[in-house]
Protein: LacI family transcriptional regulator
Organism: Rhodohalobacter mucosus
Amino acid sequence: MSHTIYDIAKAAGVSIATVSRVFNKAESVKPSTREKVMKVADRLGYQPHVYAQGLASKRKNRIMMLAPVMSNYFLTEILRGIQDCLASHDIELNIVNISQDSRAIDQVENIIKKSWAEGYLLVSLHLNEEELSCLERYQVPISLLDDYSSYFDSVSFDNVEGAFLATDYLISRGYERIVILSANPNAIPIRERLAGYKKALEKSKIPFRESYVVTGDNMERDGFNEQSGYEAMRKILTMDPMPDAVFCTSDIKAVGAQKAMRETGLKIPLISFDNLSISEYIGLSTVSQPMYRMGSEATEMLISRIRNGESKSRHTQYEPELVIRSSSEKPTVKHEAV
Amino acid sequence: MSHTIYDIAKAAGVSIATVSRVFNKAESVKPSTREKVMKVADRLGYQPHVYAQGLASKRKNRIMMLAPVMSNYFLTEILRGIQDCLASHDIELNIVNISQDSRAIDQVENIIKKSWAEGYLLVSLHLNEEELSCLERYQVPISLLDDYSSYFDSVSFDNVEGAFLATDYLISRGYERIVILSANPNAIPIRERLAGYKKALEKSKIPFRESYVVTGDNMERDGFNEQSGYEAMRKILTMDPMPDAVFCTSDIKAVGAQKAMRETGLKIPLISFDNLSISEYIGLSTVSQPMYRMGSEATEMLISRIRNGESKSRHTQYEPELVIRSSSEKPTVKHEAV
DNA sequence: CTGAAAGCGCTTACAG
DNA sequence: CTGAAAGCGCTTACAG
């Protein structure tokens, strides 16, 4: 039904090799020949068959982003960075969702095995070192985003410092009973943020208490969801004595936490983590991650590895910035219940 | 570096045709032969080369979702539906982002031309009939999601009825100066929602006023963003006389609108549209779209067309449901400014 | 139930 | 600057 390189070659009165060269932007084609071929190709609506190209050339001009797409707003920002970077390189992007149902590493391995792409961007997957080491044998360029490992290039965020800044800010405002609204304790970002929280307490000689690590019951997406934030905040608001500030481990959880405060009419100053696009609009004080830049940086790394095949892995870590809005303010009036 | 079908054939002492049959689940292979092949394949970590398979078989077992990924929360829900449906069919999904920068139809056409997949899911693209008609000549299964056209299968939502319900509810609560917080007037969903809004006014003999269609200035994603909602609401709150209720065309815009109300300390009852996962937590009354079901339904349609090649196009339209939360309540106390 | 062989639509040394 | 030809790794009638 669609035309092949033979059709074009015949119609243009050249060999298929020449048609191929024209489409691969080879320099060595006489301009007049090139034009002749292009004219025919345009008229017939010719498109090279991607599978055939891939098979013959062993190239694919394509990278894949593997990510838990469900964990959303955060990824959106990252994606923008990736795409803007790609646009300037004429490389295509495929996005594949890694579902939370089955083991992430199995899904990743299955995809990489099939060698669809020239490189892979593993976003927020937080595979462990052992799992990542399995991937090494495929000898394919891989960059980690929002993650770290010695095995591959990585672009990460200083979660420890971010959590430290947030907690330290709360301490500087005079709060002492500061809880951390946490999530799955085994998740890497949580471990790091907890460490930063502890570090800030330590600096000010405030004792760490296990009971001040509060988690919701809903563990979807490792507990990074609204409901989990809501549940945890309900618990916090019944503690006695009631904590006087909370460091919340993600903006999306803070959305749930805010609901709990509205419902009960109680309000505690809160700082969270991410700085999503909605956060500005709901007044969240938060630790800002440069998601866009992280996306483009990781992509740049991946491309350079594909093109130049560097030897040792490179790592970039972005530093946090505190954005103060209304959620961390001391409640002057009692908040009205809704 | 990686093994080919020849390596497996040789190691298993069979022909490559037999190996191929084993991997394609052909019935006609003796169980003992199958086992022998599988054992070797497992040991050598063999994976068929996808491009070669695609080239030789002219099949791909793969569908592609084309969507403006940036328009996010809404898509997340849809995606879950798609994936759950796909899982039961052993078909792979690729997600390709259609950027808002350049013409959507060009991007779509470019992808379809390359015939990566056996079928395409066009989500929230709102191409016009003329553009869609261009796609017909590629003779490939296409389903539209969150969109409608006579050319292709479609799963859509009754935007008119949804807007009608929301507006009618506000009227039933005694409001009369009801504005519509709108977006790009050329966007299909906006046109339909405006029509539903008008229909409700008409039913109650409330005159429609052009000045009650209020839009923000930020037109990213057709104005479906927080900032645009914020801007529009600021305008609304300075109108004289001030409107007494607002029908907001999307939840994400409502997030911005709520900020405007908090800032000014003024509050107007509001109903919006979508029912995103955050909406419950920020108390939005809204028109609920069954996004998950829409996703799986559209996928089911696409697969059946791929497998059976139906003749005429089928269309499913989902009906709205009103979810009433706190945002549509009459403000009793003046809202405190933040 | 299995194999030999043609063919899918390209790319790329090689030769000229 | 261009062409003939081999080859990429599979699938699938066809024959047995």
